[in-house]
Amino acid sequence: MLVFGMAQGAVAASFAVSGVSFKVSADKLVGDGFVQLVGVDQGSGAAHPVAVSGFRGAVLDNFCQSVLLRSVPVVGDITLVMVSAGPGGMAATDLVIGVAGLSGDLTLVNPQLGVDAARLDRGPVKGAAGSFGLQADRATIVGLRQTSWSTSAQTIRLKNIDLSLRKGDQGCF
Q1: Is the model's pLDDT at 117 over the cut of 90?
Q2: Distance separating alpha carbons of residues 58 and 67, to the nearest angstrom
Q3: Cβ proximity of 111 and 134 under 8 Å
Q4: Average pLDDT score over the chain
Q5: pLDDT average, residue stretch 117-146
Q6: The dihedral sign for the CA sequence 126, 11, 40, 170
Q7: What pLDDT shows up at residue 41?
Q8: Which pLDDT score, from 0 to 100, does residue 155 have?
Q9: Is residue 14 within 8 Å of residue 2, measured between CB atoms?
Q10: Cα distances (angstroms) measured from residue 84 to each of 51, 64, 90, 108, 163
Q11: Which is nearest to 40 in space by CA: 138, 108, 112, 131?
């Protein structure tokens, strides 16, 4: 069902790579209803501190996601790569990401920093009372390079998806 839904262009999705981080790159991300707070992703017996980033809606140009799978029996290291090239290659609603690291050029429209995370009201997620949060009407990141532990969304659409397996470490960046 998941593969069929993805082929049709939209699917309710929740992806978490247990114990393995993954990389995402895009020429540009434009996200509306942006919130960010500090959290912890649990998985595979380990806890990972993350910047939880949420968007009511997000569109990414020239989207790439990759995960390195080490020591696969018989073949060794393999990189699973998903690419949706072009403008609007990936779009999502109620997108929530457990971010381990991120780089790029960020612009925030109408930002509020230092908001109590339990009172965040612009995005799809809130945090614990008394913890730090930020929010903005819109976030734009040019030259996005991101390492994450988890991603969930109400819907994710990948235009003209190209999924491949590559020998060795041949990720998005």
Answers
A1: yes
A2: 21
A3: yes
A4: 91
A5: 98
A6: negative
A7: 86
A8: 98
A9: no
A10: 25, 6, 6, 25, 9
A11: 131
d(CA 132, CA 166): 40
Q: Which tokens is 156 given?
A: 């994710």
69, 78 Cβ separation under 8 angstroms: yes
Distance CA 123, CA 107 (A): 16
Q: List the structure tokens of 123.
A: 């995005």
What single letter denotes the amino acid at residue 156?
Answer: I
pTM: 0.88
Two structure tokens written together for 12: 């309710």
Among the residues of 9-55, which ranges form H helices? none
- List, in sequence order, every residue forming a beta bridge with 16; answer none if it has no partner: 150
Calpha distance 63→6 (Å, rounded) = 15
Residue 13 pLDDT grade (very low, low, confident, very high; cuts 50, 70, 90): very low
Measured in residues, the chain has a length of 173
